[in-house]
Amino acid sequence: MTHGSTEEVAARFAQLIDPWGEVRPEDRWMPEGFKHTTEAQLHRASRLLPRAVRASLTSWWLAAPSARATTPNWDIASTCLVGNQEGLLLIEAKAHDEELNKEEAGKKLSSDASDGSRQNHEQIGRAIQEANLGLSKAIPDWNLSRDSHYQMSNRFAWAWKLTELGVPVILVYLGFLNAGEMSDQGTPFATSADWETLVRSQSEPLFPESVWNREWKLNGQSLIPLIRSVNCPL
């Protein structure tokens, strides 16, 4: 998805999020094809966000920041336009059903975790509950959790926090179709309907079905959660 000229990559992203936003060749994304394969942790992604926003994200999510402390990795993150405003496109991508099924689990904390890890674990729980409250102001019945469905919970929590920091967000759950090379790991998605059905079943315990595929206004900014699929042969 991110390999090729800036014009080619931007066109792929623009098609993915049309008509909700726009990605231009001058936008910046992570990873960058097969050359720079590092995924974005937004609190460190200087290509994507200004220093003040990154610092606020760090203190919101981590009680004990350190060189080893991490925040969620995004499969793809890119600057974009949402309306006439600079925003972020965040993509969580899967190629077979087990990639999403295994994410039903909560965030683990080992019995021998350091004090810093324990502090961060508690802070993450507080951050997700803060996001629940914030999201509920626009949409009732949120149940994001550190202890269940942690990955999808943190995706929406981070999207909400970015809107609070003045950044509109397009959040895409992207299914790669017909990824037969992954069939030893799980069942690849044959159709867009297969992918969408699985995503909706995973999100059902966390928020209303009506959240998907529309624009919501949070903190004066847009949050646009989309379910999309694409054929992207290797």
Question: Which features does this protein show?
Answer:
234 residues, alpha/beta, six-stranded mixed sheet, 8 strands, globular
In short:
It contains 6 helices and 8 strands; from the N terminus they run αββαβββαααβαββ. It has 234 residues and is of the alpha/beta class.
* Biggest β-sheet: strands ordered side by side in the sheet: 1-4-5-6-8-7
Gap from first CA to last CA: 10 Å
Rg: 17 Å
- Content-based structural category: alpha/beta
Low-confidence stretches: none
Let me know the number of strands: 8
Order of helices and strands: HEEHEEEHHHEHEE
The biggest sheet amounts to:
6 strands, mixed
Give the amount of beta strand, in percent: 15-25%
Could you report the average pLDDT, rounded to the nearest whole number? Answer: 95
Percentage of residues in helical conformation: 25-40%
The 3D shape can be described as: globular
Number of helices: 6
List the helices and strands and how they pair.
Elements: H1 6-17, E1 29-30, E2 40-41, H2 51-61, E3 73-74, E4 76-82, E5 85-94, H3 97-101, H4 115-136, H5 150-164, E6 169-176, H6 192-203, E7 216-218, E8 221-230
Parallel strand pairs: 5-6, 6-8
Antiparallel strand pairs: 1-4, 2-3, 4-5, 7-8
